[in-house]
Design goal:
The chain is an alpha+beta fold. It folds into three domains: about 220 residues, no CATH class; about 140 residues, no CATH class; about 70 residues, Orthogonal Bundle (Arc Repressor Mutant, subunit A), CATH 1.10.10.60. The chain is about 55% helix and about 5% strand. The chain has 25 helices and eight strands. Strand 2 and strand 3 form a beta hairpin. The longest helix is centred in the last third of the chain and has 38 residues. The chain is extended, with a radius of gyration of 32 Å. Belongs to the sigma-54 factor family. This is RNA polymerase factor sigma-54. InterPro entries: RNA_pol_sigma_54, RNA_pol_sigma_54_core-bd, RNA_pol_sigma_54_DNA-bd, RpoN_core-bd_sf.
Length: about 475
């Protein structure tokens, strides 16, 4: 069989993502802080981008109908601005606070950023090392103490054996125990303990309660029984009344089983809302938070330089940067426009939540919003990722408004978040001596909401909200 070369014409269709589309998709799923960082980085790298001094860039819209709609929106906004008292209207949710005018009149030295005034929170390791250096231990013992502190987890417990510490410090195991004994009595008391019993016993010793043999034995040998509320065997063994046992329990609950928890956690993350929703008369107004986000435009100075470029390499460089700057401006405009439309649709579907709170949250899925605004579900999913909205009932993530449905007896549906809110309220109002079981909560939900919900579903929702079971919520008389 002879081999030969042939030319063949073939027509196929395939989806090709242009760089502009890739950039637009990437910007959709960025959080607000990530978007600000991306824009600022692009301004540093692209000489054709500069911050506009006016209200913002006007992106040309090829569709005349959308241009007419945008013009009508501008006229409507101007009409509202003339008739409304913006200071009272925006309230505490304003992107620019009422104190901004006062701040402008302050001296430069008084306008130090909050980051410069913020004192870093001491770490558990640093706090213990400070005490170790001030202790009366010898230099050799301090070296062992450094190894011990280096093996303490964020919870405050020691995650290494005495033999491991002796090997790392290069000392006999007998020299580790005295140092460990001293470190366990540093602040917070009980740190570097190996078990919960050891941690609590150290605290009992420092409080001077070791003479109470019942208390010591309860902590040392029966901590699991206390946790699982197996009280009757303890009452028989120690010949106690329920009131006496309750006194011991109250004392044990004052101890700290996680001595390093107050140091181990990271700094709190503050959320900056992407959108504000205000109630004005009988309607809701949506405002995008563009505080800190530069309004971009093409630099006129570099445009003149591009026109005067002599070599082909310069012209190609200028054209590439101009094209990249134009894509970024249009992608930002499209992102903000998409975010506004999605929030507007959410407000329409979840108006009951914005009126009365989480109890009236309706079932909602991404497809409902996508069909309403004429976009794909993936676009809605990206634009609602890591985005937050300030509502009259607090700051919520956009994903919060999408929840599954539970069938009611009359054929209608109720959102799962509404059911969770009612479960939380029922547990908060229960008698702590007779807590509600999951089965009883299901019966109450059926009576109040007319919803058929199984006991295991109640348990699933309760667990998702980090609420313990009824046996662990029960308190003694």
């Amino acid at each position: 069989m002879a081999l030969e070369l042939r030319q063949q014409l073939k027509l196929t269709q395939q989806l090709v993502m242009t760089p502009q589309l890739q950039q637009a998709i990437r910007l959709l799923q960025l959080s607000r802080l990530e978007l600000v960082e991306t824009v600022q980085q692009e301004m540093l790298e692209n000489p054709f981008l500069e911050e506009a001094q006016d209200e913002g860039p006007q992106v040309e819209n090829p569709d005349p109908r959308e241009a007419a709609t945008a013009a009508a929106d501008v006229a409507y906004d101007r009409e509202i601005a003339r008739d409304a008292d913006w200071e009272d209207y925006l309230g505490d949710f304003a992107s620019t606070s009422r104190q901004s005018t006062v701040r402008e009149s302050e001296l430069p030295e008084e306008m130090t950023s909050f980051e410069a005034r913020y004192a870093a929170k001491p770490s558990l390791e640093g706090h213990l090392m400070w005490q170790l250096r001030l202790s009366s231990l010898t230099e050799r013992q301090k070296d062992i103490g450094e190894v011990i502190i280096g093996n303490i987890a964020s919870s405050g417990y020691l995650h290494a054996t005495v033999d491991d510490i002796a090997e790392m410090a290069g000392v006999p195991p007998g020299e580790v125990e005295p140092v460990l004994h001293a470190v366990q009595r540093f602040d917070p008391v009980g740190v570097s303990a190996r078990t919960a019993q050891e941690c609590l016993l150290v605290q009992i010793e420092m409080l001077g309660y070791t003479r109470d043999k019942v208390l010591v034995e309860l902590v040392r040998d029966h901590l699991e029984d206390l946790e699982k509320r197996r009280y009757k065997p303890l009452l028989r063994k120690f010949r106690l009344t329920m009131e006496d046992l309750k006194e011991y329990l109250d004392l044990i609950q004052t101890l700290d089983p996680m001595p390093g928890a107050s140091y181990g956690g990271g700094d709190p993350q503050f959320v900056s809302p992407d959108v504000y929703v205000y109630k004005y008369d009988d309607d809701f107004i949506i405002m995008l938070n563009e505080d800190g986000l530069p309004h971009l435009q093409l630099s006129t100075m570099y445009e003149r330089s591009a026109a005067a470029a002599a070599s082909a390499g310069e012209r190609e460089y200028f054209q590439e940067k101009m094209r990249s700057a134009s894509w970024l401006i249009k992608s930002l405009y499209q992102r903000q426009r998409t975010l506004y439309k999605v929030v507007e649709s959410i407000v329409k579907y979840q108006r009951g939540f914005f009126e009365d709170g989480v109890s009236r949250l309706k079932p909602l899925i991404l497809k409902d919003i996508a069909d309403d605004i004429g976009m794909h579900e993936s676009t809605v999913s990206r634009i609602t990722t890591s985005k937050y909205v300030a509502t009259p009932h607090g700051i919520m993530e956009l994903k919060f408004f999408f929840n599954s449905a539970l069938e009611l007896d009359d054929g209608s549906q109720v959102g799962s978040e509404s059911v969770k809110a009612l479960i939380k309220k029922l547990i908060a109002d229960e008698d702590p001596r007779e807590p509600l079981s999951d089965e009883r909560i299901g019966e109450i939900l059926k009576d109040q909401l007319k919803v058929n919900i199984a006991r295991r579903t109640v348990a699933k929702y309760r667990t998702a909200m980090d609420i313990p079971s009824s046996s662990k919520r029960k308190e003694l008389f």
